[in-house]
Amino acid sequence: MNKIEHLGIAVKDIAASNELFTKLLGVAPYKEEEVASEGVKTSFFEMGESKIELLEATKKDSPIAKFLEKKGEGIHHIAFAVADIQSEIERLKGEGFVVLNETPKRGADNKWVAFLHPKNTNGVLIELCQDIDS
Predict the structure, then answer these.
(1) Taking the model in full, what pTM does it have?
(2) Domain 3-131 adopts which CATH fold?
(3) What b-and-e string marks burial along 42-80, b requiring 16 or more CB atoms within 10 Å of the CB?
(4) Would you say 3 and 50 are in contact if contact means Cβ atoms under 8 Å apart?
(5) Could you read off the pLDDT of 33-70 as tens digits, one per residue?
(6) Which residues form the VOC domain (predicted)?
(7) How many alpha carbons fall within 13 Å on the CB side of residue 48?
């Protein structure tokens, strides 16, 4: 793993949260997009080499909607940048981690993504991400 790529924060209202984080961080989001396959709308703020990703559910049965219903707004995941996501998935499986999607899928911000089950990572959902172009 190369670095913390971003922290994902589940929010109920992305427009209101964009205003709040713009005031807090002193910068506007650099990108907003919807990932229809995951039922989520995202917004990204860049802070040096790291990012904050806000996530709003667009479907009632999406993972973010379920998270918000169970835990409310707050940190949803920590994402780590990796050079080779498939090799990292295999390495982590070999270490005993449960990978939620062994085949990387297209995520927001032009990334391939895969997730580790939080039951194996002290209750924290871990996202692996690799630039699609690399």
Answers:
(1) 0.91
(2) 2,3-Dihydroxybiphenyl 1,2-Dioxygenase; domain 1 (3.10.180)
(3) bbbbeeeeebbbbbbbbeeebbbbebbeeeeeeebbebb
(4) yes
(5) 999 989 999 999 999 988 999 999 999 999 999 999 99
(6) 3-131
(7) 3
